[in-house]
Amino acid sequence: MKIPFSPPYIDDSVIAEVTDSLRSGWITTGPKVKALEAEIQQLTGTGPVLCVNSWTTGAIMMLRWLGVKPGDEVIIPAYTYCATALAVLWAGGKPVMVDSGEDFNISVEAIRRAITPRTKAILPVDIAGYPCDYTAIMHLVNEPDVKAMFQPTSPVMEKLGRIIVINDSAHSIGSFYGNKRSGSQTDICIFSLHAVKNVTTAEGGAICLNMPAPFDNEQLYSELRMKSLNCQTKDAFTKSKAGGWRYDIVGMGMKANMADVNAAIGLAQIRKYPMMLQERKRIFDTYTEAFSKEPWAITPPTRQEGRETSYHVYALRIKDITEEQRDDIIADISKSEVAVNVHFIPLPMLTLFHDMGYRIDDYPQAYENYHHEITLPCYPQLTDEQVRFVIKTVIEAYHTIIKK
Which residues, at least 6 apart from 49, have a Cβ–Cβ distance to it below 8 Å? Predict the structure, then answer.
């Protein structure tokens, strides 16, 4: 039984929405992008939402808006995808990596130990869709001693008066923190809408603006929207109208906008996202029920302490095995044509970051989480029969490699 890892959810409603965009004669940034922004804002309960062409571009743009300069430090987890660190580097800052907790997410105590007067931002990451401890992180940056240490290097930093928290919520659209959907708990939240995410626009991201007073988030949205279009005073939709050709460039912007033809995919998906999320939950719960019976299995955090995952990927860990044994189990699973993955190779183990001087020995929990983790398929199209086949295949592979 051939089971791919994460195919996009494309049904007739998605095809119809994209076709509507194509037939409209307008395929770049326009009404469908605005409609998708409104849908994400309604789903998450955040402030204004700006859709951009990727999570990475959105993070770079927000760090540049913050005014990050060479020497400024941005705290990130060592256990994340490379884009978290690359965004910091492209914005001109220095990534300061810290260790994780047993729930995969960044350790708040590790953040505390890493803060210096050069710290300008923290980028916690909701690994696999399970929310970080937003309350503890926001409390930390507002502690008097931490605020007193803060040394702003830009007008935006001076206005905020503390370390900014930009949540890397690439995996977690639809997750819960307390009684609210994730998206509004930190200063800035950025979702990914990449092809393998719960809601996709093929490529894309969504920036949720929750800056505290005296910031005006509606005004900030307008500023960032212009910045995402090269700081051009008229977007292409307005400029294309009769007599509307004249424009100005009023700053150093970026080409970061999302196109309507992409937004159309996400627009159709997010309108049925409650159903899609329920199907993901069905698969998660089936996996957890089965693997909880296996003494060698560690099931991922799902619904604990007022937090609920977005059911993005199922990060199964296997007790008391080496990295090599994990890889052998994956190879055995693959013989049955079940595609699995690993989330993630810690950043210090990647050549770019290792060459910069980061060492995995400094992040023992990140390595512990990684070396025995196997990510299982989880998407709405999976049938109960396919889920049972995945479970059977994983269990058999474990016993084949770990002969006990």
Answer: 37, 38, 40, 41, 206, 207, 208, 209, 221
Count how many Cα atoms sit within 13 Å of the Cα of residue 65 in the half-sphere of its side chain. Answer: 25
Query: Strand, coil or helix: what is 119?
Result: strand
Task: Provide the greatest CA pair distance for the chain.
Answer: 78
Task: Looking at 144-245, list the stretches that DSSP marks H as alpha helix, in order from N- to C-terminal side.
Answer: 144-149, 155-160, 217-227, 236-239
- Whole-number Å distance between alpha carbons of 209 and 220: 8
Q: How far apart are CA 193 and CA 204, in angstroms?
A: 5
Contact by Cβ (8 Å): 131, 147: no
Say if residue 300 is preceded by a cis peptide, omega within 30 of 0. Answer: no
Q: Are 201 and 265 in contact (CB under 8 A)?
A: yes
Task: Give the separation between CA 236 and CA 230, rounded to whole angstroms.
Answer: 11
Q: Token pair for residue 140? A: 């930390």
Token pair for 236: 């292409």
Give the chain's length.
404
Q: Which two tokens stand for residue 267?
A: 């627009």
Alpha-carbon distance of 261 to 31, in angstroms, equals 10
Q: Omega before 291 cis (within 30°)?
A: no
Could you list the mean pLDDT of each consecutive 10-residue stretch along the chain, which spans 404 residues?
95 98 94 97 97 98 98 98 98 98 97 98 98 98 98 98 98 96 97 98 98 98 95 74 77 94 98 97 98 98 94 98 98 98 97 98 98 97 98 98 82
Identity of the residue numbered 180: K
Q: For 392, phi and psi rounded to 5 degrees?
A: -60, -40
The three-point CA angle 258-260-263 to 5° equals: 70
